[in-house]
């Protein structure tokens, strides 16, 4: 592929919006011939905050981290199956850390041309804006970003029409 888009990264967080973004990323990769990777980041910053606030004990953090890692495997496997259904290989990546930093790191290290994100939630306060990891990934991305509106029914139609 010699076009401007040769490598696409889609961020998966388990939300319906991120699965819709994955559908769009698969369609985009399929039609452009680009390679596609799906990334899930276990948010260790949030886990650390829960322990520091004494909401979780250390043992509870370990259990919760294990559960989140299993969720990551499950959601990434779902995206892989969606790609296989459309005859598109999807590279699966799982990282741990602060979400926006891990996304930025993977984008740079993997030399991705495009980041695909699920819809950005409506910001209700400065605090929401500061802690919204998807929004922070959008703002700090070293490459162009496509934000997929999960309320768009056309994405399902586009995905289903792929051969």
CATH-defined superfamily = HUPs
- Return the string of H and E elements: EHEHHEHEHHEH
Low-confidence stretches: none
Name of the CATH class: Alpha Beta
Radius of gyration: 16 Å
Number of domains: 1
**Quaternary structure:** single chain
- Number of extended strands: 5
The averaged pLDDT comes out at 86
Question: Helicity level, as a percent range?
Answer: 40-55%
Strand content: 15-25%
Q: What's the end-to-end separation, in Å?
A: 19 Å
The helix count comes to 7
Assigned CATH architecture:
3-Layer(aba) Sandwich
What coarse outline follows from CA principal-axis ratios?
A: globular
Largest sheet: 5 strands, parallel
Query: How is the largest sheet built, in terms of strand order?
Result: 3-2-1-4-5
SS content category: alpha/beta
How would you portray this structure in words?
The chain is an alpha/beta fold. Helix content is 54%, strand content 20%. Strands 3-2-1-4-5 form a 5-stranded parallel beta sheet, with helices on both faces. Helix 1 runs parallel beside helix 3, helix 2 (44-52) packs antiparallel against helix 3 (58-85) and helix 4 (99-110) packs parallel to helix 6. The model has no long low-confidence stretch (mean pLDDT 86).
């Amino acid at each position: 592929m010699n076009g401007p888009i040769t490598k696409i990264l889609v961020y998966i967080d388990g939300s319906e919006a991120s699965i819709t973004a994955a559908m769009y990323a698969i369609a985009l990769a399929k039609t452009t011939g680009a390679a596609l990777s799906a990334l899930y980041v276990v948010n260790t910053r949030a886990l650390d905050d829960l322990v520091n606030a004494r909401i979780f004990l250390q043992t509870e953090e370990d259990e919760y981290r294990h559960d989140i890692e299993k969720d990551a495997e499950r959601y990434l496997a779902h995206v892989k199956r969606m790609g296989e259904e459309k005859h598109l290989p999807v590279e699966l990546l799982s990282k741990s850390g602060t979400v926006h930093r891990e996304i930025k790191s993977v984008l740079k290290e993997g030399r991705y041309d495009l980041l695909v994100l699920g819809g950005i939630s409506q910001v209700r306060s400065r605090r929401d804006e500061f802690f919204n990891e998807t929004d922070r990934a959008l703002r700090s991305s070293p490459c162009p970003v496509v934000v997929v509106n999960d309320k768009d029914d056309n994405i399902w139609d586009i995905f289903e029409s792929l051969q």
